[in-house]
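Lecture notes, continued. The same structure-token format from the folding unit now serves as the input rather than the output. Read the line below as a description of shape only.
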């Protein structure tokens, strides 16, 4: 007897692996976990977790429940629950999350917002205020 396949039933324990040496250009959508050990030029959207391994490189937007970065990311990351920058990670861009973990040795150059909600107008206003405050602080 054959089992029927229903595309609406998803298993979040499934993992998509983009191996070292693989380069993908475009948008990736998944209901399961994604691990990037290769290179992605484009956006990654997952209903579960996204992990960028030590050899992984992402140039684009990442959206997921939990994001762990061990490699390099250039772009924007939005984690619904938690974002972890591991010790050898390099993150350049903006991040949005409820919980941010930055391990010793991680490199982060950008802006962070930790309310879990992102509002682009509010972010732009905060950046302008922060930049003005930084200039005033530097000029003292």
């Amino acid at each position: 007897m054959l089992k029927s396949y229903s595309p609406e039933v998803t298993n979040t324990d499934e993992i998509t692996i983009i191996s070292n040496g693989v380069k993908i250009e475009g948008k990736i959508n998944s209901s399961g976990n994604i691990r990037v050990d290769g290179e992605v030029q484009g956006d990654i959207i997952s209903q579960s977790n996204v992990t960028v391994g030590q050899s992984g490189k992402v140039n684009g937007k990442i959206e997921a429940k939990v994001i762990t970065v061990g490699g390099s990311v250039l772009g924007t990351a939005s984690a619904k629950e938690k974002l972890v920058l591991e010790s050898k990670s390099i993150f350049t861009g903006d991040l949005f999350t409820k919980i941010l973990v930055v391990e010793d040795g991680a490199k982060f150059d950008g802006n962070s917002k930790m309310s879990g909600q992102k509002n682009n107008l509010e972010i732009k206003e905060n950046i302008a205020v922060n930049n003005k405050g930084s200039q005033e602080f530097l000029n003292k």
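Point for the exam: The longest strand covers residues 72-85.
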